[in-house]
Design goal:
By secondary structure, this protein is an alpha/beta fold. The protein has two domains: 115 residues, 5'-nuclease (Rossmann fold), CATH 3.40.50; 45 residues, no CATH class. The chain contains nine helices and five strands. Strands 3-2-1-4-5 form a five-stranded parallel beta sheet. Strand 2, helix 3 and strand 3 form a beta-alpha-beta unit. Helix 3 packs antiparallel against helix 5, helix 4 crosses helix 5 and helix 8 packs antiparallel against helix 9.
């Protein structure tokens, strides 16, 4: 059974930045698509198209509609944009892992006990699943602090965990 992974726009853009810096290759994205069901909403797809995100593969991505309108509208009322809010509108979102770079959105989702994490935490998960080598995980996590993904302290702790894995 594949992992069900919902990826927000900010994380897709981070993938593009990592591809551009040659920290990851297209092979990494293929691994992601092979190992996981990658899920987005139509609202996220609109942003990916607008921002011309290269790492996103329309053919391999599952696009789900907003099925839980109340949760979607509540998130908008609480100040989140339509794309992030649409994640909460996915039917069965409690069974998925959400990867986001938006700290307020992560805190908000945790209030609803959703499985949500930063890309850096997901890279750690990929290492523990043996999808990535220790060396590759280290190389991916190393530039994330400069890309404003994680704080210096989080960065140091995660690099240490990878070294000790």
């Amino acid at each position: 059974m594949k992992l069900k992974l919902v990826i927000d726009t900010g994380t897709w853009m981070k993938f593009d930045a990592l591809l551009e810096k040659q920290v990851i290759e297209q092979k990494f994205m293929e691994l992601l698509y092979t190992s996981c069901d990658i899920i987005i909403t139509h609202k996220i797809e609109e942003e990916l198209i607008f921002h011309r995100v290269k790492s996103y593969d329309h053919q391999k991505t599952i696009i789900l509609p907003i099925a839980r309108d109340t949760a979607y509208k509540r998130a908008i009322t609480d100040g989140f944009d339509h794309a992030d809010s649409s994640i909460l509108g996915i039917d069965g979102i409690e069974e998925y892992i959400v990867v986001s770079e938006d700290r307020p959105f992560i805190r908000y989702c945790k209030m609803y006990n959703l499985q949500i994490m930063f890309l850096s935490d997901f890279i750690w998960m990929m290492l523990t699943f043996h999808w990535l080598s220790k060396n590759k995980a280290y190389k991916i996590v190393k530039p994330l602090q400069s890309l404003r993904n994680i704080t210096k302290n989080q960065h140091k702790r995660l690099l240490q965990r990878i070294r000790n894995f």
